[in-house]
Amino acid sequence: MTQAEKITVENGKMNVPNKPIIPFIEGDGTGPDIWAATKRVIEAAVDKAYNGEKQIEWKEIYAGQKSYDKSGEWLPDNTLNTINDYKIAIKGPLTTPVGGGIRSLNVALRQELDLFTCLRPVRYFSGVPSPVKNPEDVDMAIFRENTEDIYAGIEWQKGTDSVKKVIDFLQDEMGVDSIRFPETSGIGIKPVSEEGTKRLVRAAIDYALNEGRQNVTLVHKGNIMKFTEGSFKSWGYEVAEQEYGNKVFTWAEYDRIVEKDGKEAANKAQDEAVAAGKMIVKDAIADIFLQQILTRPKEFDVVATMNLNGDYISDALAAQVGGIGIAPGANINYDTGHAIFEATHGTAPKYAGMDKVNPSSMILSAVLMLEHLGWREAADLITKAMDTTIASKVVTYDFARMMEGAAEVKTSGFGDELIKNMD
Ligand SMILES: NC(=O)C1=CN([C@@H]2O[C@H](COP(=O)(O)OP(=O)(O)OC[C@H]3O[C@@H](n4cnc5c(N)ncnc54)[C@H](OP(=O)(O)O)[C@@H]3O)[C@@H](O)[C@H]2O)C=CC1
Ligand SMILES: O=C(O)CCC(=O)C(=O)O
Ligand SMILES: [Mg+2]
């Protein structure tokens, strides 16, 4: 029997043994339902692809309610240390209360392990019911910065001594006179750094070039938040031009040519760059971008954006290809090789324990994990089974309610169906 071993990373190269130990967090709410189906599907695919030559040994680690009930801790050090040590993990969603209580454990995992990219690929599976006319036009990969922004949760509550101190400082020492209601305001801080932006944009450009994509769009609200979102745009263009100059043509370059030689010259330069096989790096302001991905999604391939924008954009795009039930994700540090794979959606608490929700988001996150491990044969088996199963209209409630002639199955039943359709 093959000995189970840790995945290691040496000189930036990941070594995956035939029997890697992979930690998992079951998650809160519907997490246990979707994890049970996901685990069975992964095991069946690996078994089928490698005839027992490869196998995953699962190692349960704890976070969220299950952890709190067990040890009184929401996110024990042991969980962080284990992921740090074993490099790759997969998790179900974890609850974050609104307006008080603990801060997001999901965000804490990303920050503590410095998983600076949240990669969320969004593509259409034929037959999935969608609210738009041409959902197949959506094929985008979102690179969401995962450690900074207003999402970092640096904020002070209204009426506390701390918020008073911050407001006094802003008014007395920084000359701020635009806090509309200082006595009743809470305050949040939005850190966005050059370092954080550049490593994220670098990851997005590398991905786009490797995947042969045509463009990367930097999405920001830099007209309003000039030194955070606006700087994200400038630093993004900087990294594109300084590090990928011979492989990309940027809209910053386009604008410089317009200024110097006019629009015709800029259009000509862009056409020549595209003809020479260069990839376009462009940008869009976040509000209009949300309209454009709906009206002309074909124009966007890879999206690089900040944390909060990325959160909104990923749920919005998921809706276009059939909803959050089929939206996978991965939190990755491309420098250290650490990664946690997780669905885009949350705990969907009203369905907890009902064996009802769609496990596809978590299963497709597992596909990303298998691809990350280099186990493409197993990943492809699952993706193909997903195609076949959806085409046969055997689906969970979320798709069944929008699909004519569907046979509704439970979470576990959808897992069974995928396993049956693996060939
Ligand atoms: N990474 C993570 O762990 C995340 C955690 N969360 C947390 O999850 C909790 C609940 O968040 P909430 O805003 O309700 O968002 P959720 O994503 O949990 O659920 C919202 C709705 O989306 C649909 N949905 C979600 N998951 C599925 C699925 N697997 N299959 C089919 N439909 C699904 C359901 O729609 P319908 O009602 O129409 O059937 C559900 O009611 C919060 O505490 C939040 O902070 C949120 C996002 C990510
Ligand atoms: O951490 C949470 O509870 C929400 C996170 C979230 O919505 C996301 O990462 O997409
Ligand atoms: Mg979200």
UniProtKB/TrEMBL annotation:
Gene field: icd
InterPro entries linked to this entry: IsoCit/isopropylmalate_DH_CS (IPR019818), Isocitrate_DH_NADP_dimer_prok (IPR004439), IsoPropMal-DH-like_dom (IPR024084)
Presence of the UniProt keyword ATP-binding in the record: no
EC number, UniProt record: 1.1.1.42
Domain Isopropylmalate dehydrogenase-like as annotated: residue spans: 21-418
NCBIfam families given in the database record: PRK07006.1 (NF005425), prok_nadp_idh (TIGR00183)
Cofactors demanded by this protein: Mg(2+); Mn(2+)
Top-tier EC class: oxidoreductase
Keywords, ordered alphabetically: Glyoxylate bypass, Magnesium, Manganese, Metal-binding, NADP, Oxidoreductase, Tricarboxylic acid cycle
Function of the protein: Catalyzes the oxidative decarboxylation of isocitrate to 2-oxoglutarate and carbon dioxide with the concomitant reduction of NADP(+).
Protein name as it appears in the record: Isocitrate dehydrogenase [NADP]
Reactions it catalyzes: D-threo-isocitrate + NADP(+) = 2-oxoglutarate + CO2 + NADPH
Protein's organism: Lentibacillus kimchii
Gene3D superfamilies: Isopropylmalate Dehydrogenase (3.40.718.10)
Subunit comment: Homodimer.
Family: Belongs to the isocitrate and isopropylmalate dehydrogenases family.
UniProt KW Chaperone keyword: no
Residues annotated as signal peptide: none
